[in-house]
Design goal:
This protein is an alpha/beta fold. 43% of the residues lie in helices and 16% in strands. It is globular and about 55 Å long.
Length: 344
């Protein structure tokens, strides 16, 4: 344990050596593994990083805790905290600990340690934000994690062809897990309760940011839900921050099967017509043809943005982002597309 503590002290000294005001304030919105990939990249280039996380998960350990205790689903919040852990012994040890899942024949089976820790602190402190800040301090997280809303949300979607035997019928399906795996075509998503309250600290972070990063991630169940929280959507529209949308490397089976890169932007615009973007980031191999690239540029222009194509995927052939390559792409975008004054 002494070696781990030593690593943590070294990391803290490095953080303390950073020149105040020399880095951009960045807010990343999303959920699940997409947000984790973005955070793992962004923590490499800024020390002023906030994650705003969706709270509509209803599956697995999170769903069980939500149903039994009436709490926010902690799973995506836990994943974000793990992604913000450093690469030293302290950070990597705690990342593994909070991601660890129990294996048993009893009630603890498949519960993640971090989920239980987060819920325990919520019950102890009675404050979602304070509890997550405390977990972040324990982990030595390189950033802050906030829920987008303080109430558990249910995601619903209008889906064409959810029942394969009725391909033209539009059905309303409920639950993030169901939406993510539907075999049909998602037409529209919305939240229950409608017009949920945003966490004030999340709204403040968006309004004070230099850059806001949206995506990558499950389009309908992790990215778009942030645009359905009125105060958060308004902050995204009104903030002086520049905004970058990071596209997925491949369509998600079930949720966005058959979607072109352009279609992803069109869906985003339909859910938040007043939202403007500065940059749309896509992996160059995910938009291979001239026609697809032209279509993506046209869709980005309709959102007042430009397109940046860069190699951001892992080289092992899996549709996963490489944190170093993604960090390099973000860093280049932040430098080349202008600053909001000096980095405050």
């Amino acid at each position: 344990m002494s070696r781990i503590a030593g690593g943590r002290n070294l990391r803290l000294r490095r953080r303390g050596a950073r020149r105040p005001g020399s880095q951009p304030k960045v807010v990343a919105l999303g959920g699940g593994m997409g947000l984790s990939a973005s955070l793992a990249a962004l923590r490499r280039i800024t020390g002023d990083l906030t994650a705003v996380v969706t709270v509509a998960d209803d599956g697995g350990s999170s769903g069980r805790l939500r149903a039994e205790l009436g709490v926010l689903p902690p799973g995506d919040l836990r994943k974000a905290l793990a992604a913000l852990c450093g690469d030293d012994d302290w950070g990597q040890t705690w990342s593994r600990v909070i991601q660890h899942r129990f294996t048993s024949q009893g009630e603890l089976h498949d519960h993640a340690v971090g989920n239980l820790l987060i819920v325990a602190l919520w019950e102890q402190l009675g404050d979602h934000v304070a509890a997550l800040d405390l977990v972040g301090t324990l982990l030595g997280a390189h950033g802050r994690v906030l829920p987008m809303s303080a109430v558990p949300l249910e995601l619903r979607a209008d889906v064409r062809g959810h029942a394969p035997e009725r391909p033209e019928q539009v059905t309303t399906v409920a639950g993030q897990a169901t939406v993510a795996l539907t075999p049909g075509e998602v037409q529209q998503v919305y939240l229950v309760p409608a017009d949920p309250p945003a966490v004030p600290a999340a709204v403040e972070a968006v309004r004070e940011a230099d850059w806001v990063v949206l995506g990558p991630g499950s389009w309908f169940s992790s990215v778009i839900p942030h645009l359905l929280v009125p105060d958060l959507r308004q902050a995204l529209v009104e903030t002086k921050a520049r905004k970058v949308l990071s596209l997925n490397l491949a369509p998600q089976p079930g949720e966005t099967d058959g979607f072109s890169p352009r279609r992803h932007l069109e869906v985003l615009r339909r859910h938040a017509p007043k939202l403007a973007l500065d940059v749309v980031l896509a992996d160059k191999d995910a938009v291979p043809g001239a026609a697809e690239r032209d279509g993506l540029r046209e869709a980005a222009k309709e959102l007042e943005g430009s397109v940046e194509l860069a190699p951001v995927a892992r080289t092992d052939g899996t549709p996963r982002h490489d944190p170093e390559l993604l960090a390099a792409a973000y860093d280049r975008i932040f430098r080349m597309h202008g600053r909001i004054g000096p980095w405050r």
